[in-house]
Known about the structure:
- The chain has helices at residues 22-31, 48-59, 85-88, 98-105, 124-132, 163-174, 190-200, 232-244, 260-268, 307-315, 333-340, 370-382, 393-396, 402-407, and strands spanning 3-7, 13-17, 39-42, 63-67, 70-74, 82-83, 107-111, 136-140, 143-147, 155-157, 179-183, 204-206, 212-216, 225-227, 248-252, 272-275, 279-283, 294-295, 320-324, 344-348, 351-355, 364-366, 386-390, 412-415.
- A four-stranded mixed beta sheet has the order 22-23-1-24. Strands 2-15-17-16 form a four-stranded mixed beta sheet, covered by helices on one side. The chain has a four-stranded mixed beta sheet with strand order 4-5-3-14, covered by helices on one side.
- The chain is built from 14 helices and 24 strands.
- The structure holds ligand EPZ.
- Ligand EPZ is lined by residues 23, 26, 93, 119, 121-126, 160, 162-165, 186, 303-305, 327-328, 370, 398.
Amino acid sequence: MDKIIISGNGPLCGEVRVAGAKNAALPIIAASLLTPEPMKIGNIPGVRDISTILKLMELLGARVERDGTGLVIDCGEVNSVQAPYEMVKTIRASILLLGPLLARFGEADVSLPGGCAIGTRPVNEHISGLEALGAEVSIEGGYIKARAKRLRGASYTFDVPSVTATENLLMAAALADGITTLENCALEPEIPDLAQLLCAMGAKIRGAGTSSIRIEGVNTLQGTIHHVPPDRIETGTFLTAAAATRGDIIVQDTKPEFLQHVLGKLEQAGCLLQQGNDWIRLSTGGKRCRAVNVTTAPYPAFPTDMQAQFMALNSLAEGSATVVENIFENRFMHVAELQRMGADVELQGHTAIVHGQARLQGAPVMATDLRASACLIIAALAAEGETTIDRVYHLDRGYTNIDTKLADMGAVIRRE
Ligand code: EPZ
């Protein structure tokens, strides 16, 4: 079981390059199932969720050739439509195979992903959306069994703006017969990026990035080349770590427009931000941040995937603030671990009231999920003494070489 050991060592200073976005790469890889032609994808992040979904694709018969951060994936010989539980339980995003398999092959057997640490993670929107497109869906033995000779265009309104449900329906409708209109869609940047990829494959899509998307189905889609956009959450994580350690860093290869709300909150906290089209500089002048209230909500509001990181920042800031988690029902597990480091946090349902401390104390703590791991790393970087973070396999699901990237900016960090 990997551990990361960090000794608080003052401000982070220097530069860091951001990898491709895990949550953009996952639907892009799934979309390769929609065509028998090879797809060339660049800027793939070297994270475990990606290697897991690529193994799952190979299980279905896809051929994958990796070359550094690039890969070619060829789904011309796919000969199975079953995504087994043993694989799906390790990566919930496998649900993204459902739409493409059904659209291209007329059938799909994808294991129900099950919940994860942060919540039950229902998939009812995925299922009712595909039923609206004419699929027959049943749940048997823990599997979603979907059948449709040919999906047909329809109108569907999401109850909640689900990111992966919007992505699933976008991919399925691309090959449906007729026009599909999707309302109350998710607005996350991964959606217009996926739509751009599908259009490059020959799909006809309008409105991606707004709550209303129109898709005119086509009969076949072609292979293409695509570059994964930068990871907005990795960007926000490094910036928050620099803020917590009173540092001064430049994040390169990123897109500031993907995280404007987070940047606004960092400015409210007293950080000085400068930005270009692919870089952001955060400096603190060595000053302690001010506590800021955050409330998670669908994009473009404050992202739930940055909530844990800001909990660490507020634990070290001047004053008190509230952190409200509205997306997932159990995304405060990092609080108990922060409290072991001296953080003063009161939980009241979905609201955490955080009273900032000038310093936290290093301690042995345990990572419970991907973003909780990032929270504990940020707290450990700013704490006095040594922190050992256990179960950091969570971290590797979503961050590429975070320990070496932090060490290059002055952190005293090692993996055991
Ligand atoms: C995506 O998950 C991300 N994952 C999550 O990142 C992210 O936290 C989340 O969006 C919210 O931004 C990927 O993109 C692979 P949702 P997703 O469907 O699509 C409810 C990470 O580790 N809902 O947008 O699964 C659900 O309960 C992950 O990087 C339904 O009710 O999230 C939640 O309250 C963590 N029915 C809300 O919608 C459904 O069928 C948002 O969930 C689907 C979702």
